[in-house]
Every structure is written in C-alpha cells, then in structure tokens.
Write a structure and sequence with these properties.
Blueprint lengths: L3 E6 L2 E4 L1 H4 L2 E6 L10 E12 L2 E7 L2 E9 L2 E5 L4 E4 L4 E5 L4 E7 L5 E11 L10 E5 L4 E4 L1 E3 L3 E10 L2 E2 L8 E8 L4 E5 L5 E9 L2 E4 L2 E4 L5 E5 L4 E5 L4 E8 L7 E3 L2 E3 L2 H12 L34
Antiparallel strand pairs: 1-22, 2-3, 3-4, 4-11, 5-10, 6-9, 6-11, 7-8, 7-10, 9-12, 13-15, 14-18, 15-16, 15-17, 17-24, 18-23, 19-22, 19-24, 20-21, 20-23, 25-26
Keywords: Iron, Metal-binding
Family: Belongs to the pirin family.
Protein name: Pirin
Length: about 300
C-alpha cells in the first residue's frame, strides 16, 4: 500500500512508421510508474485516417486488450483466430508462453481509426500457460448514479467494477471500465481501497474532486490515484468519456522489452532468438506467408526489472 496520489501522467508520442503508418500516444509504462495494478502498457492509436498494417509479431508473458473507439480492426493469430473487432467489443489475447498475431484496418485504403490498446502482465503462476484468444461482443453495462445531472453509463471491459464482472478471462484482481458522462453530470466512481487506480480522459472535459482539491485532467492524460480510496468524485460541464484502470498492486518485478514481458534478461533474449529462428513456440499466422516483423537487436546492456518510484 502506497496511499492516495494525484499525479498526472502525460502521454509521449511514439512513431511506428511503416508498421502502422501512424504515431501512437503512450502513457504506460512510465519511467516512474511501470504498472497500475497489472496494467503494464497503454497506447492510443488515433484518432487518424490511416491504412493500418501491423504484420505478424510475437508476445510472451502478457495479455493484449484492444478496445476500439472508431473503426474496425481485423485480428489474426497463430491459434487460427480471424475476427473483425468493432466499437463496444473486446479482443483479449493471452500470450502465455508464446503467440503471434497481426492487426489490420479493414479495407484497402485509409479509414478513420481510433482505439485503446493495453497490455496486462501475467503473474508468475500463469505466465507460462498455453496461449488463448477470446472476443466479447456483449459486455455488461451499468448505471452510476449522479449527484447532479444524468446518471453515467459504464461498460465493464475487464475484471470487476461496482459489483459487476466482465466475462473476459483475467489472472489477477483487476478493473478496466469505460465511463461515459453526460454534460452537467457529477458522479461518484466506486473504487476498491486495496487496489490502485488511474483515470484517463479519452474525450471531453472532466474534473476530479479530492476533498478540497479539484484536478482538471487534460485530454489524453492519465490521473494516477494511488490506492487507499473507496471512491472519487468526477464532474463535467461538457460531457466526458473516461477509462478507469486499476487493480491489486503488482509486486513482481518485470522485464519488458519489445513485445515481451518476462522476469530476466536471459528469458527475453531466448524469446527473441526463438522468434528470429521461426520456432514452433510462436507458430504461424495464416494468410501472411513469410511476412513478419523482425525483432530489433537486444540493447548492449543487461535488461533489468522495472519498479515504481512514486
């Protein structure tokens, strides 16, 4: 337990060049805060008009969580999954000991596209499991009572929120929920005091009330709330779309490099070598032939586990 916090984290722009032909805004991992609960990575790609082509690439030790805002994304992987993901639907891929996948926008030309993509690190007991993929097209929605204005609507994307559970498979106590507030609303967002949380402003404007302190969350930024809170009040004049993420603090040191989440330098090196050798561990994504993203060189330093400093 680290106690309550009110720390704004700014995204940084990461160019992905010819892979996605677009830039993304990345909030996690942050140098001082590598995880919030088991959430270890958070990108927003878009809003943009783009022809997205993410060729086959590998993952280990994590789950990918894709939550579209605008547009459609085609997912293919080495388990023969081939699905199109749309607004209000969730793609959840569990890498386990190894999987590869691709992501394409639908159509041959540039299309409007906007989505949130997260990684959830797997705990020691689950990170060597067999890979899996699931798509959920009917996620639970709940109303959050408003102290002022209309009630808010929340979609429970992952884990548990306000007494409601998502059907998606999780391996740690966790929450991921989209919250939509109408103009003029003030609501109280329930939180588990044993968990840490963060709130991201996806669209609109919002203020967070913490006692006598009011914090405005700038567009696209994340407000880290720490733990030891049972609720937080949020209000908006214009309306807002938020994403709440959190969970039980993740106390295992993780080594993250490229698309891998491990525990040691040697484990990451082995995963890279297996991908470059086209090992059976990662399989083949149907429909791509020999096209795949090569692994970058390992940095000339020993990769170390990341720990928080806030």
């Amino acid at each position: 337990m680290h106690g309550p916090r009110s720390i704004l984290l700014e995204p940084r722009e990461v160019p992905l060049g010819g892979v996605r032909a677009m830039n993304v805004q990345r909030i996690l991992p942050n140098r001082e805060l590598p995880t919030i609960g088991a959430w270890c990575f958070f990108d927003r790609f878009g809003p943009d008009e783009v022809r997205m082509r993410v060729e086959p690439h590998p993952h280990i030790g994590l789950q990918t969580v894709t939550w579209p805002l605008v547009g459609e994304v085609r997912h293919r992987d080495t388990l023969d999954s081939d699905v199109v993901l749309r607004r209000g639907q969730l793609n959840l891929m569990t890498a386990g000991n190894g999987i590869a996948h691709s992501e394409y926008s639908v159509g041959d030309g540039p299309v409007p596209l906007d989505a949130l993509q997260f990684w959830v690190v797997l705990p020691e007991a689950s990170r060597h499991r067999a890979p899996g993929f699931e798509q959920h097209t009917d996620l639970p929605r709940i109303a959050l009572p408003s102290a002022e204005g209309p009630d808010a609507a929340a979609t429970v994307v992952l884990g548990d929120f306000a007494g409601v559970r998502s059907p998606a498979t999780v391996f740690t106590p966790i929450v991921g929920a989209e919250i939509e507030l109408a103009a003029g609303s003030r609501i109280r967002v329930p939180l588990d005091p044993a968990w840490e949380h963060g709130i991201v402003l996806v669209e609109g404007e919002v203020r967070v009330i913490d006692g006598d302190i009011e914090t405005v969350i700038p567009h696209g930024e994340l407000l880290f709330l720490g733990d030891s809170r049972d609720s937080i009040d949020v209000l908006t004049s214009e309306g807002a779309q938020l994403f709440l993420l959190g969970g039980e603090p993740f106390d295992e040191g993780i080594v993250m490099w490229w698309n891998f989440a491990g525990r040691t330098h040697e484990e990451i090196v082995q995963a890279r070598e297996d991908w470059e050798a086209d090992a059976a561990r990662f399989g083949t994504v149907p429909g791509h032939g020999d096209v795949r993203i090569p692994a970058p060189p390992i940095p000339p330093v020993r990769l170390k586990a990341r720990y928080r400093s806030i």
